[in-house]
């Protein structure tokens, strides 16, 4: 269990700061402990009254001499006395008044004792039971919420530490990382867990605010019940001698003079730095910062939506793609970090891939999906993936960035569908006029080992092998969205 901090330092995030830490140093159980102590104080206060009535009933049997036992039940200071206002007009003053008046009571009667036991004592016993039930409700409700917050914070902290390790590895190894260790992916994992953590913190905060608001009403009920019990007590002893009646009347008068919010207002004033300010804004992910949040390894080279041709249905499906500084091409279902854990559906390590030419809106990449870890990568096979951008300019920009990170570049054009007409079908095209076949990369690696000049020539041929309409520019790619380079 964490060591309790000072009231001022433990609630810094409730003051509406703009930039918050991901993992705060507050003790989530601090407010719950405070309210638990306060319930204990009220329980002991009511217990004092129960003891007082019981002893009064017994003392009525032995008259004045036995009445000294009643004084002993309230002779000690209140337990958790710091929770009560020590000035006149509060609960502490009521007990002081009871002590002074009880000293003067010397006679009691049997009938009075019977009425005290049968009608007055049960009022305080029921109130004592209500306070015990309120304590159980507090521990089962707010206590569980604090545990959930601690668990969520531990998960976030572990992922932030993992991000720190991988970003350090990125800097020391020149960006050579596995797909699962890509700092970009790890940062999105941190955001996912941080979002869950803040939801748990806000839920727990709202629960504590509800408990805090309910305490004012509950304490008013406690004081009101004490006043009611003391009023009944006065009626029982009013038949005794005038002196006894006068003393008990003074005790009840002091109890009924306590305002319902007297103790609560004093409690709020003494614990301003610990209690939650309901007007303070809730935490948001946009205001939270964590280590390595803006590290260069987490910033994509290009990101946006592309269409990829399926292997079975042969239709194009749109997904969210990102090229990271670690030279990975990741595929995600969406760019939302909060809906679910953003784990890549597909990951291509571009230095191990072969990139074909860019024709119009289309380009091909051949490589292995390395998103399954080391074991999955060993048994995975190379696949030729066909991509299509929304515009030729977007395709040119994607192709240029992928080409710079890729291991090899082929001049093969992607597969296109050429419509036929009845006139054209009368003359059979020669083999040289047929549509180019899909990217063939089977012998490129062998040729590269046999003749280095062949691969360099292949890199130089894309512009001559591509159609004039889809040839990429030799300069830096431009964005299809004005003012947002690399975003589609």
Automatic annotation (TrEMBL):
PH domain location is: 300-409
Which portions of the sequence form the region Disordered?
Answer: 1-24, 406-488
**CDD domains xref list:** PH_Slm1
Keyword Transport in the entry? The reply is: no
Compositional bias of kind Low complexity? 451-480
Task: Mark out the compositionally biased spans (Polar residues).
Answer: 1-17, 415-442
Pfam families, sorted: BAR_4 (PF20400), PH_20 (PF20399)
Q: Which Gene3D superfamilies match?
A: Arfaptin homology (AH) domain/BAR domain (1.20.1270.60), Pleckstrin-homology domain (PH domain)/Phosphotyrosine-binding domain (PTB) (2.30.29.30)
User: What's in the keyword line of the UniProt record?
Assistant: Phosphoprotein
Q: What is this protein called?
A: PH domain-containing protein
Query: What is the species listed in this Swiss-Prot or TrEMBL entry?
Result: Lojkania enalia
């Amino acid at each position: 269990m964490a060591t309790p901090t000072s009231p001022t330092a433990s609630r810094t995030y409730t003051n509406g700061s703009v930039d918050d830490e991901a993992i705060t140093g507050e003790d989530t159980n601090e407010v719950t402990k405070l309210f638990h102590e306060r319930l204990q104080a009220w329980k002991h206060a009511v217990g004092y009254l129960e003891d007082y009535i019981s002893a009064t009933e017994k003392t009525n049997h032995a008259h004045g001499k036995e009445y000294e036992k009643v004084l002993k039940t309230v002779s000690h200071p209140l337990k958790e006395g710091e929770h009560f206002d020590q000035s006149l007009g509060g609960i502490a003053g009521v007990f002081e008044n009871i002590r002074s008046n009880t000293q003067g009571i010397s006679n009691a009667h049997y009938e009075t004792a019977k009425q005290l036991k049968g009608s007055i004592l049960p009022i305080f016993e029921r109130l004592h039971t209500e306070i015990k039930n309120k304590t159980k409700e507090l521990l089962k409700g707010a206590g569980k919420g604090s545990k959930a917050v601690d668990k969520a914070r531990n998960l976030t902290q572990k992922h932030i530490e993992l991000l720190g390790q991988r970003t350090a590895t990125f800097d020391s190894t020149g960006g050579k990382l596995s797909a699962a260790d890509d700092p970009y992916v790890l940062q999105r994992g941190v955001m996912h867990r941080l979002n869950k953590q803040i939801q748990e913190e806000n839920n727990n905060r709202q629960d504590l605010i509800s408990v805090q608001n309910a305490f004012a009403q509950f304490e008013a009920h406690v004081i009101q019940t004490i006043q009611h019990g003391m009023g009944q007590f006065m009626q029982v002893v009013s038949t005794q001698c005038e002196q006894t009646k006068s003393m008990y009347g003074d005790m009840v008068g002091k109890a009924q003079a306590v305002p319902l919010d007297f103790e609560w207002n004093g409690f709020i004033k003494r614990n301003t730095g610990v209690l939650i300010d309901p007007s303070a804004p809730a935490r948001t992910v946009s205001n939270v910062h964590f280590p390595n949040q803006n590290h260069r390894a987490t910033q994509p080279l290009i990101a946006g939506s592309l269409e990829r041709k399926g292997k079975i249905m042969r239709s194009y499906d749109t997904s969210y793609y990102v090229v990271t500084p670690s030279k990975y091409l990741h595929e995600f279902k969406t760019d939302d970090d909060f809906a679910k854990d953003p784990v890549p559906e597909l990951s291509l390590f571009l230095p191990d891939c072969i990139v074909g030419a860019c024709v119009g809106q289309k380009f091909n990449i051949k490589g292995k999906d390395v998103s399954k870890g080391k074991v999955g990568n060993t048994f995975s096979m190379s696949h030729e993936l066909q991509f299509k951008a929304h515009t030729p300019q977007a395709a040119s920009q994607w192709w240029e960035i992928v080409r710079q990170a890729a291991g090899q570049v082929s001049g093969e054009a992607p597969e296109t569908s050429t419509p036929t007409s009845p006139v054209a079908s009368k003359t059979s095209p020669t083999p040289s006029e047929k549509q180019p076949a899909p990217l063939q990369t089977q012998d490129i690696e062998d040729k590269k080992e046999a003749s280095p000049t062949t691969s360099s020539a292949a890199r130089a041929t894309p512009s001559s092998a591509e159609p004039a309409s889809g040839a990429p520019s030799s300069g830096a790619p431009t964005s299809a969205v004005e003012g947002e380079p690399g975003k589609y």
